[in-house]
Design brief:
This protein has helices at 2-7, 43-51, 86-90, 102-110, 141-151, 159-180, 192-201, 215-230, 248-254, 272-281, 303-306, 313-327, 365-376, 405-410, 413-427, 437-447, 453-459; strands at 31-33, 58-60, 67-69, 96-98, 115-120, 155-158, 186-187, 238-244, 259-260, 263-264, 268-271, 345-352, 355-363, 384-388. The protein has 473 residues and is an alpha/beta fold. The protein is globular. The structure holds iron/sulfur cluster (2 copies).
Length: 473
Amino acid sequence: MQELAIKFNVKNVEFQGETAKHEIDDKSPSIVRDFNKCILCRRCVATCKNVQNIGAIDCINRGFDSCISTTYDNSLNDVNCTFCGQCIEACPTGALREREYIDDVWAKLKDPDTYVIAQTAPAVRVALGEEFGMEIGTNVTGKMVSGLKRLGFDKVFDTNTAADFTIMEEATEFLERFKNKEHLPMMTSCCPAWVRFTETEYPENIPHLSSCKSPHQMFGAILKSYYAKKNDIAPEKIFVVSVMPCIAKKYESKREEMKIDGICDVDCVITTRELARMIKQANIEFTKLDDESFDHPMGEATGAGAIFGATGGVMEAALRTAYELITKEELKELNFEEVRGEKGVKKATIKIGDAEVKVAVAHGLGNARKVSEQIKNGEADYDFLEVMACPGGCIMGGGQPIKSSKIRSEVDIRRKRSEAIYAIDEKSVIRKSHKNPIMQEIYKQYIGEPGGHKAHELLHTHYSEKEKYCIDE
Ligand code: SF4
Ligand code: SF4
């Protein structure tokens, strides 16, 4: 619709008449609702209810008074919205959009006393180019790093490095629980929308969640402790900006549980779309940029970190590491095809040494509800569960470039972006998280053992029940 408005030079609405006035809801750290822009197409309602199976929003009233609202007309912050952002991807007018933090980032970049670090999630590099007219699924890692450096970031690091830490911690935690048969299946915790979904809809399943922070939060904690100390920078002077395909990560970074001694692990989260806006605001010709590499040493990552961006990727990366940790033998076949692909819930039994590990992978909150019900009712026949709230995983996150319904119906966007992610893994020199040299060095010099005291202090967290209002009740 916005494309059509530009094409036909529609700048103002010439027809006068009565219009409904709605207050802008900007209470949530993730989403802004401006229903003055709403055309009541109800795409957001259909996505939230039918795809994500949440029902946080619905159409209320009749005739002229019709509008999209929440339970008790609360802010999205105060209902069972998970901040998955899938409604934003569906909205044609921008009535639903991410809460933007661009001005905060510009202010810090201009402040000579602040050391501003960017870290970028695996899914951003296979979608950012689309905002500049490039083919869907183009890997623009080098240009993205180059663009961030031109914007003025002091350092540009790779969140994939932190994904390797996540695997070390999560695999260690899983092996312990598997040995003791405790709180199985263990559920991954790197998707903040899935964590919020569990906290609001299935609080009885909280003990099943891994206590690991998500990769970007782990990275923030390491940057403000190990990295700050090593480079003699006061942690308060470091401003960590996570560039993410996700809007739930904005909310996650503001959670009290994500602070250490009152200092946030991550100061600000911007989406793929916001990064593209910043690059455009700075008049950088993105497509003409030369490729640059992430800064050393925190930019060294493995292929296992890269596949976190696609559904099944966290599980596959964890299996590569768990296999070698248990058997002490080299894993020859690294691709676990059983956990790849678009099926809503994938299950597999993997033989690791003498043990048989049963795993499941779900993506999209509709599928998450199915596995959550199984766990709640004690019917889950698997030991380890990966869930990503967005259908397809982070590559289809609520902060990724918005595509018209025409493109969405003609092009398999999920497949193109996911092929680009797996190609990064295939080309990587190191493809197992536990082999990441900088990660090994940091464990040796600073953290100690995976799952140890310091690791828990920096890299783990806890979750608790959150209040839920459901519109259908
Ligand atoms: S962010 Fe997700 S859960 Fe919240 S209203 Fe939108 S689709 Fe529903
Ligand atoms: S998708 Fe956007 S325009 Fe359509 S009903 Fe929802 S908020 Fe309104």
